[in-house]
Amino acid sequence: MLIDEFLPTYDVSNKYAVTINDVRSKVYPFVRKMDISAASVSMFLFQLRGIKSACGSEDHFDLDALLKMGFVILGEKKNKELLLGLIGKPWTPDGCLVDFSADEFKDFDKPGFAKIAWNFALKSTGTGECQLATETRVACTDEESSRNFGIYWFFVSSLSGLTRKEILHVIKSQAEKVVIEVEES
Questions:
Q1: What secondary structure letter does DSSP report for 91?
Q2: SS3 category, 70
Q3: What pLDDT, in 10s, does the model give residues 66-124?
Q4: Minimal CA–CA distance to 132: which of 30, 48, 49?
Q5: Cys-Cys crosslink for 122: which of 7, 15, 24, 113, Cβ 3.0 to 4.6 Å?
Q6: Does the predicted model carry a pTM greater than 0.85?
């Protein structure tokens, strides 16, 4: 998987998954064009950090908005995996985000930062369904950033997990809604 190539060693990892009633080739476009505006808890948390207002549109929060806020597409395997990356200091109010390219992500080691890899991966179940999973990995670049991130993570890990679970369910809902509409026509 791409996440293993870009961030094989890490300090923190969280995984979540959901089963979707369709094949992955039909679900993957919903990952690419995810509109997480319907994820109310996530949107509330983004607003608390000032993320949503910094990204523009009030009624649409998608992959482009994530890219505007500092995420970079590290890699993509069509119909299998989309990997996003972010480098910064999430424990600070503004996040101290670093401008970087996908090629620079692996070797970035400046002290005081955290590298974050966040993927969406699809796996066929062989039953006309697929599993959509997301994993977030965080690797801190030194002991001080690891301590700072640890304190931050103590307070936000459960909300962060809730956000990712909610995003999975929004993608599932959007993908299955189209399946139902096609079957009914």
A1: T
A2: coil
A3: 888 889 999 999 999 999 999 999 999 888 999 999 999 999 999 999 999 999 999 99
A4: 30
A5: 24
A6: yes
